[in-house]
Predict the 3D structure of the following.
Amino acid sequence: PQTQGLGKQRLDSDAHGRGHHCCVRPSSRHDLPPEAQVRFHTKRRGTEKNPYQAFKLLYSASEKGSTDARYLLGVMYLEGNGTPKDMARAYVWITLAGEVPEFSSDLDPQLLRSKKSEVERQLSREQLEEAKTIRATMMAKNLTPATVPPVNEKPANSQPVQSASGVRLNLPAGWEQRPLTERMASTGVIVFAVNRTTDTGAVLTSVKRQGITDLMSYATTRRAAQANNLTDVQQSSVSPVQVSGKNGMRFEVTGALKTGQKLSYLMTIIEGDTDIVILNTWTTAAGLDQQRAAMGQLAENISGY
């Protein structure tokens, strides 16, 4: 089936193999982001293919920070589809696609690692040096991804974001609400937001309080789960906090994603009357000291629990 919106498209191991082609049918809705206009189809009768237009749209979306677009752009460079084959640029875009927390994108981490390995096996020493030069140039132009992937979405205003259960998060100035990925929605995330100025992100989740009798034990379990997703882990103790007059727990976990990027997470767990609210915030490991206070303060903007 045709799927509009790469962020909602599941990328499996066969989705972009050889024999599959990139085509595009521009949407009549001009307010759609570029990557939402790109569709990937298998060969079929009557399908109009325009890989060159698809490449143009993907490049625009990649520069704006779309994780999925960056991966697909790298695949086009790898296969020479819609653009001359360029192994160095394939490596750059595919590795950039992986430099985000895994749950913030629907991109399959196993597929990403497999494609990265495929590119690495074909790179010569000269091409690897070229890739490093291209990457350094992009970093200088601030084209590398933020800690979380930006999406073309209207910035959230000061109005609170509210869940069906009544839990609300009032986003301060500088924060933008982002659409939930399928993975986020399936795990009960209420809000996904980013602050591109400070390179921080946040997800808000709530669970029913019933059955959770010891907040310290629950927080310790959540800390272990967070650490299990990382390597080279450093973690703080779980400390009691007061948030808007409610009892809570807070801890930090720092570690490397499977792509090698090092992030620091600050999680605040608050005990409400009917809900347990979990605010997980993150930034680069190098930026934690500067952003720690603001990340903790964001929990004060939660209500309705």
Q: What stands out?
A: The helical segments are 51-63, 67-79, 87-97, 109-122, 125-140, 182-186, 215-228, 288-297. The longest helix spans residues 125-140.
